[in-house]
Write a structure and sequence with these properties.
The protein has 310 residues and is mainly β. Helix content is 5%, strand content 50%. The two termini are 16 Å apart.
Length: 310
């Protein structure tokens, strides 16, 4: 039976994406010259869809769940991830260079309440996680390095940030200016502001992203459109009050190097979509995060996503 013209109104999108961050993805550099330090690796699995979390619904009363046709709605995001931070080492010496940061792992689960409209996105995220050996940082890096041992530097995890349960509360607001979603070729600018607080990270962020592309989709509203190709770039800055991975544990600091109060970041990337499938690549360059750290640290992300609408 053919679907009625209004059937799409009730269609709800559900998206699962996998994001891998790694300096091994710095494809503009020769494999043996790519860094294997600082923010060395991240793996994040994300689910977008469904109703907003129970703890946020009191503040979102009257807002409908997100469907393909809604222009103002509420939804949820759940993410499980692991981030790894490693010191600078040489190819034949696993010991950190003098003044380098300690090894650190961060294994976490987060849930976000999202309020979306055509011009604005508000997102409140609660994150719980662990550092130290329970974060499985050493285990995952060892497994990854076995895949290409000739391109990886040895790493000694006998000195790492210790075990600590972590909590982060983060709020981010984004705006859409000049969205070109209704035209064959579109350009938009997305300024954003964010603030986070917790024993793992306390910081404020300010930045923007600019996109240009063919059949450009809305940056956050659900869409079941066809093919899209977009290029994007952006700049951001962070004012940092606490970074556990550099400042050490809360009560037993252990090895720590302190953090720079301001860190900048730039990104450039491309995104391809074909109906429910998406593939994104972005290159990122961060400024120095602590006194003895590198002036610049390049790394990159590959994100694959699948959206099912029903």
């Amino acid at each position: 039976m053919a679907a009625l013209p209004g059937a799409a109104i009730a269609q709800t999108p559900h998206t699962v994406s996998i994001r891998a961050d790694n300096d091994a993805f710095d494809f503009w550099m020769l494999p043996w010259n790519r860094p294997d330090e600082e923010y060395s690796s991240g793996v994040h699995i994300t689910y977008d869809g469904g109703d907003a979390p129970w703890w946020s619904r009191r503040f979102q009363r009257g807002t409908p769940n997100c469907t393909i046709s809604t222009r103002a709605c509420r939804t949820a995001r759940i993410e499980i991830g692991q981030d790894l931070y490693t010191p600078a080492t040489s190819a034949d010496n696993p010991l950190p260079a003098p003044g380098s940061r300690p090894n650190a792992g961060w294994l976490y689960l987060s849930e976000s309440a999202r309020s979306l409209s055509s011009t604005r996105s508000d997102e409140l995220t609660l994150t719980l996680g662990v550092t130290g050996p329970p974060s499985l940082g050493e285990t995952m890096q060892s497994l990854a390095h076995r895949a290409a041992p000739e391109f990886n530097r040895p790493s000694d995890w006998s000195d790492q940030v210790g075990f600590e349960p972590g909590v982060i509360v983060r709020y981010e607001q984004r705006r859409a200016i000049g969205s070109g979603a209704e035209r064959s070729f579109g350009v938009d600018v997305i300024p954003r502001v964010a603030i986070s607080a917790g024993n793992v990270s306390t910081a404020a962020e300010l930045g923007f992203q600019t996109r240009a592309g063919w059949h450009l989709r809305h940056p956050w509203l659900p869409d079941a459109g066809g093919a899209e190709i977009a290029i994007f770039g952006g700049l951001s800055g962070r004012a940092i009050a606490r970074d556990l991975f550099l400042d050490g544990n809360t009560f037993d600091r252990g090895h720590h190097v302190g953090h720079e109060p301001f860190v900048g970041s730039g990104e450039l990337g491309v995104e391809l979509r074909a109906r429910g499938f998406s593939l994104l690549y972005r290159a990122v360059n961060d400024t120095r995060s602590y006194a003895a750290g590198p002036k610049w640290h390049p790394w990159a992300s590959v994100i694959c996503g699948v959206t099912i609408v029903h």
